[in-house]
């Protein structure tokens, strides 16, 4: 069999099952279907354009390998491109319009539901599209009242990345900074070019309005950075990335376990 599954254990890769095998699966209502969603976009001069897709795909793959075999969970192939128009002025960016991504994810979600599954984790690796996934998740929830959808950022689970970051990097390291660089050194070391790395933070305006946070303005990458980097990769190492990766994997093992056992709040009371 070809290596279509990548790092996902083959027994947890949904496309390897036959249609009759999927129809015969037990407890499909609590089986977790994992859909990694990434992007193909510039990540400065030192990281590959697959960074967001690689992180979402690999972290969940390794989590599925570590997950209790008694918990039913399967991965779909990743959605490898996304809404990346904030990086349009930089080379290496493939852009889906918001409506295109929404339609794609709605159709995938409806297909998962039609197979009989009732729990879908949308694991997003790209910071420019969480709102799109949240809209899709809520629309699917409204259309299919017994469907539970979880639009979660790949970095949102408990992990140790902040242990290595300065206060400035924790606050302003939005793109291709130290955490992503260390992690990619662990995942795709041959595709990372630390000798080309640069650090660049947006100028401090002193205003209440900020690129991210509670009172924000709409921005494109070239509004904040000449290099495409919004952060500082200085200090990143493969060893650090291995620690971050291990913690993310453990976090996703916990998350997938909780999704398997999840019930809507009022359902738990009934």
Characterise the protein shown here.
With 270 residues, this protein is an alpha/beta fold. The protein has a single domain (11-264), classed as 3-Layer(aba) Sandwich (Rossmann fold). 37% of the residues lie in helices and 8% in strands. The protein has nine helices and four strands. Helix 3 (98-114) runs parallel beside helix 4. It is globular and about 55 Å long. The termini are far apart. 41% of the residues are buried. The mean pLDDT is 95.
For the structure shown, list the relevant keywords.
single chain, 270 residues, Rossmann fold, four-stranded parallel beta sheet, 9 helices, 37% helix
CATH superfamily: Creatininase
Beta strand %: 5-15%
| Shape estimate | globular
Number of domains: 1
Distance between the termini: 46 Å
- Rounded to an integer in angstroms, the radius of gyration calculated over CA atoms is 19 Å
Q: How do the SSEs run, as a string of H and E?
A: HEHEHEHEHHHHH
Give the overall pLDDT as a whole number.
Answer: 95
State the oligomer: single chain
Helical element count? 9
Could you name the CATH class?
Alpha Beta
Largest sheet: 4 strands, parallel
DSSP E strands, number? 4
Question: In percent, how helical is the residue content?
Answer: 25-40%
Would you identify the CATH architecture?
3-Layer(aba) Sandwich
Kindly name the structural category. alpha/beta
Could you name the CATH topology? Rossmann fold
If strands are numbered along the chain, what order do they take across the biggest sheet?
Answer: 2-1-3-4
């Amino acid at each position: 069999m070809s290596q279509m599954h990548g790092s996902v254990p083959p027994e947890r890769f949904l496309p390897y099952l036959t249609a009759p095998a999927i129809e015969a699966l037990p407890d499909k209502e609590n089986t977790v279907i994992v859909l990694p969603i990434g992007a193909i976009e510039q990540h400065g001069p030192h990281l590959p354009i697959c960074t967001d897709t690689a992180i979402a795909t690999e972290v969940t793959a390794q989590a599925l390998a570590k997950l209790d075999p008694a918990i039913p969970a399967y991965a779909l192939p990743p959605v490898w491109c996304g809404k990346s128009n904030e990086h349009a002025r930089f080379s290496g960016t493939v852009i889906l319009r918001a409506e295109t991504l929404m339609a794609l994810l709605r159709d995938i979600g409806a297909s998962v539901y039609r197979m009989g599954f009732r729990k879908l984790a949308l694991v997003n690796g790209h910071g420019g599209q969480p709102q799109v996934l949240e809209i899709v998740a809520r629309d699917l929830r409204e259309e299919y009242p017994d469907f539970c959808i979880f639009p979660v950022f790949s970095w949102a689970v408990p992990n140790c990345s902040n242990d290595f970051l300065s206060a400035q990097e924790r606050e302003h390291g939005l793109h291709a900074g130290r955490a992503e660089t260390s992690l990619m050194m662990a995942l795709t070391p041959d595709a990372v070019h630390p000798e080309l790395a640069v650090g660049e933070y947006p100028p401090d305006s002193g205003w209440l309005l900020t690129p991210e946070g509670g009172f924000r303005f709409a921005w494109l990458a070239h509004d904040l950075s000449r290099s495409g980097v919004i952060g500082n990769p200085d200090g990143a190492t493969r060893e650090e990335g291995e620690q971050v990766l291990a913690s993310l994997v453990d976090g996703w093992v916990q998350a997938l376990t909780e999704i398997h056992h999840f019930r809507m709040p009022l359902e738990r009371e009934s």
